[in-house]
Write a structure and sequence with these properties.
elongated; two-stranded antiparallel ribbon; single chain; Ankyrin_rpt; mainly alpha; 321 residues; disordered N terminus
Length: 321
């Protein structure tokens, strides 16, 4: 039915097919809590569930619109009147993903008070919620989620707590979320040296590809961000990641074996502090990749004279040919 504001209050809640939104969405976006309550009260009981969970043109329900606005009071009101937090929500690309519900949206946005409300209403929580909180740098949300899933337990989608944390480590490393990386490592007592070492390969690779679609995005080319990159390396090394190995990569655009120094020298602007840190902890300047090349090759390929000079200095100091 088409909403006609001139036909009486009993119809003001209906979806306007011309504007492709509803007065409820509009009131929520405007922060009009009294208007929201009045609109909900005007909805016939038989239609309330459908109306309060209707989507606008962007596929957001009224509850999700309130979450986007950070309106805690509106979220409370909508949940009290039957808004369904388990409905799918648009992800950071705007698509409806089968694993991305309102709790994922709350974790992505980083409002831990709203996340608590949503999780209190749900009977369970999916592992995707943890991944979103990790990727978007929402430490409070990561802590809240892990508190609700005890050790040796599973998320609602059958993923074990340890497996979920292991997967959440990847976006924390890729996006240089130092505090979250430390918390995940502490919360899981994660000690798989091989997997920790493989995470090292994600740090420099991500430097070439800023993820602008991610909320709370980190600009990786700033001096401040470069310091975070170094802290990520230090955190992984302190957790027992090894820097002296050659690792097999299937997921990169250039699959095959490479060392951490190959990855570092492939960067557009690798910080020398990282180079020095890795050498200090035993990185092998003579390691060969799948093509039989040492880390010097990508440095030469990028005309990175500073790296080449340092490589030559270390090469001469150890007496190698």
């Amino acid at each position: 039915m088409v909403n006609d504001l001139n036909t009486g209050d009993n119809y003001v809640w209906m979806l306007n097919v011309y504007l492709l939104t509803s007065p409820l969405h509009v009131a929520i976006s405007s922060g009009q809590i009294n208007e929201i309550e009045a609109i909900i009260s005007s909805i016939p009981e038989s239609d309330r569930s459908a109306a309060i969970n209707a989507r606008n043109i962007e596929n957001y329900t009224p509850l999700q619109t309130a979450m986007l606005s950070g309106d805690l009071a509106a979220v409370q009101l909508l949940l009290r009147h039957g808004a369904d937090p388990t409905l799918l929500a648009p992800n950071d690309y705007g698509d409806l993903d089968e694993k991305f519900d309102s709790s994922c949206l709350a974790a992505m946005l980083g409002n831990v008070s709203i996340l608590r409300l949503v999780l209190d209403t749900q009977e369970s929580i999916g592992a995707e919620t943890l991944y979103q909180a990790s990727e978007c740098g929402r430490l409070d949300c990561v802590e809240e989620i892990l508190q609700r899933v005890p050790k040796n337990c599973k998320f609602a989608d059958g993923v074990t707590r340890m497996a979920a944390i292991e997967k959440a480590l990847r976006p924390a490393v890729v996006e240089w979320r130092v505090d979250i990386l430390k918390h995940l490592l502490d919360a899981s007592e994660f000690s798989d040296t091989k997997k920790l070492s493989e995470l090292l390969l994600l740090v420099p690779y991500s430097d070439n590809s800023d993820q602008y679609h991610i909320p709370n995005h980190l600009e990786k080319y700033t001096p401040e961000a470069k310091l975070l990159q170094i802290q990520i390396y230090k955190t992984l090394i302190d957790a027992d990641a090894r820097v002296d190995g050659v690792y097999h990569e299937e997921d990169s655009p250039w699959p095959g074996e490479r060392s951490i120094l190959h990855m570092i020298f492939s960067e557009r602007d690798p910080p020398m502090e990282v180079w020095e840190l890795l050498l200090e902890h035993g990185a092998d300047i003579h390691a060969l990749n799948s093509r039989g090349q040492t880390p010097l090759f990508p440095a030469l390929d990028r005309d990175n004279l500073e790296c080449c000079d340092n490589w030559g200095r270390v090469h001469n100091e150890d007496g190698s040919e």
